[in-house]
Specification:
- The structure holds 2 protein chains of 2 kinds.
- Chain A is an alpha+beta fold.
- Chain A has helices at about 30-35, 90, 115-125; strands at about 5-10, 15-20, 20-25, 35-40, 50, 55-60, 65-70, 75-80, 100-105, 115.
- Helix content of chain A is about 15%, strand content about 35%.
- A 7-stranded antiparallel beta sheet of chain A has the order 5-8-9-3-2-1-10.
- Chain A starts with 6 loop residues before the first strand and ends with a helix.
- By secondary structure, chain B is of the alpha+beta class.
- Chain B has a 7-stranded mixed beta sheet with strand order 10-11-12-13-9-3-14.
- In chain B, helix 11 packs parallel to helix 17 (about 720-755).
- Chain B is globular.
- The interface between A and B is medium-sized, with 12 and 20 residues.
Chain lengths: ~130, ~900
């Protein structure tokens, strides 16, 4: 279940503010849709991301899906262990399966995203 | 476009929580809640069931069904026997495939063609277009009435056996068919599948009964598998999928059929098949392919790219459509690819076992330039990144049942064992010491129960290393000297005499007219006979291409037939190809339904009549009964007198006599054998015949002598020849006691094993055996492990696949022989303890090794040999000469 302070993109990425950073991952709904996750391609610490642009890919047996950045900024931390511990997506998609931590250039970008309730509505239709 | 179709199992899939998708016009499960990865793994370790009822099923019947099929299908449908199936492709006339398919022949006059779901309508329309060219062909679409479930994986056979009420499973070879009854419904069974699993079944059942069958299979532990895992399994097995490896490539061009290596088995250019749609372009592709196999690329334009397995060598996923590069040159495209799971394993060789951990690996099939070779590194462009990969011969191997074995790119070329260099003196001392240790172990501490082994007497062994062991004595009968033997070398008077005496002694033993002693193994003896047959049947015209034997009748290796007598063994270069089946023209002895170790004599007449074999080879490596020599003689004389009746006695050569059988008295023409199994000899081979000089067949004998020398040997190993003469004296002197005791011991051993609660094979009415052999069933695929444990306890036997098993790695039997231990003085009662030892080892009891060594100490003196004091001095003198 989504935490109340999490924000979501239509493309199922989530973002959560932690102090002055934004932590980014994919929702439990996305994990359920993808099925078995077999590969994760993450960017490097120090890279820049742009809101709405791809920053990596998450792959299941059947298909590869791009990951879209919910905010712009500099990547200050990457969950390096995650590509070798893909089972975390099933067990804790909103916590231990965080993917990158970004120093946002504009925190207000978070307001463009859906809150947990709106996201729940959004996926109900799918 | 009609609404999406549903199989009868559709609602079951939904109830099971499957994620459903549209596929080829059908609403099908792509995965169940377990997920693709777990479903793939479950199939490889246990068993999976797949609803494949969406595939098209067409019945083809009628007087002209065969000509129609020969025209529209790529394989030779006329070569398909009843209860067989074959891979066959629907060609489009331009060298490409309309669809790939499987043809099943469950009935004499009716064929079942299974096609891909997505192409069913296209295939049907195509056939309808061609049908008007043929009268009296019925084509019926039974996709709705007949449903299909695939059952695959190591446990699948047990599951099916557990559900069968009547009928027989198909023979344990791929493509064999059978019919069984499950809960009162008839189920057609094929040993076919799309997963690469060696234990595999595809089941056809009336649609009204399929849900009940599915439920039964699930109750027995089969896991439901969706289309997602179906695809990962077939990809790992390297199997093509229409739309990826057949059909249109990434550049919009038609993929030539022979780009797919499996297509080679689905295409026949046989004259009997005649012309068919697409024959010409396929022949051009075939010529190009033959060149490519020889690294001759002159015809490469007819087959510019081939489908090759590619393994990624770094973490990543390559998918269909990704470009492939070799040294920055674009060489092709991925046709299928993803990341798949595999079970990790521990242990080596036969002892390899799956452990509970999985790995993941990125694998693909790719359509690449035909001049790429195995092991060539390539790069795959995937989502903007270049992933390193390598061309591999396969991702998976299926020839070691009951498991399919994943082969990673890093396992293809195992590093050679480094033998540490040692000082010569050290090497010599180590060798001497280890030889002593090994000999002591086998001779003093083990119970030796391998049925093909024997310990020759010390006298025979001594003679084998005397001077003739290092000499030559080539000789030939010369007609100019009235058939006198002429020797090519000097110093051969002694050995020349030995050889004459040996022939004389063996003639007495067999009760026959001629013996050829120059062969140095049983297999060589057989090869010499086969070569002599070819020589003999061509003797009336030496100028033309010498033909091979047109048909040979033998025991199939699954039913214990000799390796020599199989097309893959010594027989290979001497038997012709049957133009109808395009396989070696070998026909097997039928066996009794209730006892696969006996020939079904009544059914042989028809086979001899139909095939007219030029050579019939009796004799087996797994042998519990007498061979029906007299009965075969009678059938041959009545139906096809030209057939040469050969008995490869190998194992039972030492039992020729009243306690087993006397083949020449029963009418055999030729007997071959190894002289070191039940016979007391040194390791050699021998051929004997009963042709008299006035017989037409005597010319076959003369051919045999030529094919022995100079055909098979120059040096015929005179040391063991000398030892064999002594062994022949021993045989002729002691055979009455020895043979009687061997058969009595075998029966006693069999009874003792049964009394210990072990499953003894054979007919209890005979006390299970009429030979020196005893066969015990220890459970499907348990053989290798138990044989190893027995060896660790000093009991040496060999594991053997029974007639029901798919291969030696799945062997469920132990094959044992009592002759060596009989020679060490064991009698009937003495076999009770070894039976108990074997039971103890099977049960996992500890400390058996010490008990076995203690037991063996009671049986160290070799019997049935010349051991009296009067020989001691003579033997001592021989010792002094070494």
């Amino acid at each position: 279940m989504a935490n109340e302070d999490m924000k979501f993109m239509e493309s199922h990425e989530w973002a959560r503010q932690e102090a002055d950073l934004v932590v980014i991952g994919v929702s439990d709904f996305a994990v359920e849709q993808l099925g078995d996750i077999v590969f994760l391609e993450l960017p490097s610490k120090g890279d820049n991301v742009n809101k709405g642009a791809t920053f990596g890919a998450i792959e299941s047996v059947k298909a590869a899906s791009d990951l879209y950045a919910p905010v712009s900024g500099e990547i200050v931390e990457v969950n390096e262990a995650l590509p070798d511990e893909l089972e975390k997506f099933k067990s804790d998609p909103h916590g231990a399966a965080w993917m990158i931590k970004v120093k946002p250039s504009d925190l207000a970008q978070l307001d463009d995203l859906m809150n947990a309730a709106d996201y729940a509505e959004h996926v109900k239709g799918q | 476009m009609e609404r999406t179709l549903r199989t009868k199992l559709h609602d079951r899939h939904v109830e099971l929580g499957a994620k459903m998708v549209e596929f080829g016009g059908w609403h099908m499960p792509i995965q169940y809640p377990t997920g693709i990865v777990q479903e793939h793994l479950a199939t490889r370790k246990e068993a999976g069931i797949f609803d494949v009822s969406h595939m098209g099923r067409f019945i083809i019947r009628g007087k002209n069904a065969l000509p129609f099929m020969q025209h529209v299908l790529s394989n030779n449908s006329a070569g398909l026997e009843v209860y067989e199936s074959q891979y066959t492709i629907i060609p489009n006339g331009a060298g490409g495939a309309i669809d790939d398919s499987y043809l099943y022949r469950f009935y004499e006059d009716e064929y079942l063609l299974v096609v891909n779901a997505a192409n069913r309508e296209k295939d049907w329309d195509h056939f309808q277009q061609v049908l008007p060219q043929f009268s009296e062909v019925e084509l019926i679409d039974q996709t709705k009435e007949l449903s299909m479930v695939s059952l695959q994986g190591p446990k699948s056979k047990d599951i099916l056996l557990g559900l069968m009420e009547k009928g027989e499973l198909p023979d344990p070879m791929r493509n064999e068919l059978g019919m069984v009854t499950i809960q009162g419904s008839e189920v057609l069974v094929g040993r076919t599948g799309y997963t690469g699993e060696p234990i595999c079944f595809e089941l056809f059942i009336k649609t009204k009964d399929v849900v009940a069958l599915w439920d039964l299979l699930m109750d027995q532990g089969a896991a439901p598998i969706g289309l997602g895992a179906r695809d990962t399994l077939r990809l790992e097995a390297g199997l093509p999928l229409y739309g990826h490896e057949f059909g249109i490539d990434a550049e919009g061009k038609e993929i030539p059929m022979l780009a797919v290596s499996l297509a080679r088995f689905a295409i026949s250019f046989s004259e009997l098949k005649g012309d068919f749609m697409g024959r010409e372009p396929l022949m051009r592709q075939f010529e190009a392919l033959k060149g490519i196999r020889n690294r001759d690329y002159s015809l490469i334009k007819d087959l510019p790219r081939l489908v090759m397995p590619v393994a990624l060598t770094a973490k990543g996923v390559a998918r269909a459509g990704d470009k492939v590069y070799r040294n920055d040159k674009h060489v092709g495209y991925i046709t299928s690819g993803t990341m798949i799971p595999f079970w990790q394993s521990e242990g080596e060789g036969l002892a390899a076992r799956f452990i509970d951990e999985k790995g993941m690996r990125g694998i693909c099939l790719a359509l690449l330039d035909s001049d790429l070779l195995e092991d060539e590194p390539v790069e795959v462009e995937s989502r903007g990144r270049k992933l390193p990969g390598v061309v591999v011969p396969y991702h998976l191997r299926s020839e070691a049942p009951p498991y399919a074995r994943a082969i990673g790119f890093d396992q293809l070329h195992p590093a050679e064992e480094v033998i540490p260099d040692k000082e010569t003196k050290q090497k010599v001392l180590t060798l001497l010491d280890k030889a002593r240790e090994n000999t002591y172990w086998r001779q003093k501490e083990c119970i030796n129960l391998i049925p093909s082994e024997m310990t020759p007497s010390a006298m025979a062994r001594m003679l084998s290393i005397m001077d003739p062991a290092d000499r030559y004595a080539e000789h030939k009968q010369v007609k100019a000297f009235c058939e006198a033997e002429v020797f090519y070398y000097q110093g051969t008077d002694f050995i020349g005499e030995v050889e004459s005496l040996l022939v004389d002694e063996l003639r007495k033993y067999f009760g026959c007219t001629e013996v050829e002693p120059r062969l140095i193994s049983g297999q060589m003896a057989n090869t010499a006979v086969f070569s002599a047959m070819v020589d003999y049947i061509n003797r009336t015209d030496r100028k033309v291409e010498q033909r091979r034997m047109s048909h040979v009748m033998n025991h199939h290796i699954i039913r214990g037939g000799h390796l020599s007598a199989q097309p893959m063994g010594a027989l290979r270069d001497f038997v012709a190809r049957d133009p109808k089946t395009e396989k070696p023209a070998v026909v097997n002895f039928p066996v009794m339904a209730d006892n696969p170790y006996r020939i079904d004599v009544a059914a042989c007449g028809e086979i001899i009549e139909e095939f007219k074999p030029e050579l019939m080879i009796l004799g087996k490596s797994m042998i519990l009964h007498k061979e029906p020599v007299a009965e075969m003689r009678a059938l041959i004389d009545e139906i096809y007198p030209q057939c040469v009746l050969m008995y490869d006695m190998a194992h039972v050569l030492g039992l020729v006599g009243p306690y087993y059988q006397q083949p020449f008295a029963e009418g055999a023409n030729i007997v071959t054998g190894s002289t070191h199994k039940t016979f007391f000899g040194t390791q050699r081979g021998v051929v004997a015949c009963n042709y008299k000089e006035e017989d037409l067949g005597y010319e076959l004998w003369e051919a045999l002598e030529r094919r022995a020398f100079p055909g098979s040997v120059s040096n015929h190993h005179l040391g063991t020849l000398l030892g064999l003469l002594l062994a022949s004296y021993e045989m002729n002197c002691f055979k009455d006691d020895y043979q009687k005791q061997v058969v009595a011991n075998a029966k006693a051993f069999a009874r003792a094993l049964r009394d210990c609660g072990l499953e003894v094979a054979g007919d209890p009415a005979f006390d299970y055996t009429e030979t020196h052999q005893v066969i015990v069933d220890v459970g499907y695929s348990q053989g290798p492990d138990i044989a190893r444990r027995l060896e660790d306890s000093n009991i040496v036997v060999n594991y053997q696949a029974s007639p029901q098993e798919e291969g030696f790695t799945a062997a469920g039997s132990l094959r044992m022989g009592v002759s060596e231990m009989t020679r060490f003085g064991m009698k009937e009662k003495d076999f009770e303890q070894p039976a108990q030892f074997i039971r103890d080892v099977v049960d996992g009891k500890k400390g058996v090794k010490e008990e076995v060594a203690a037991f063996r100490r009671r049986f160290l003196d070799l019997k049935y040999c010349f051991s009296e004091k009067e020989f001691d001095q003579a033997v001592q003198k021989l010792h002094e000469l070494i």
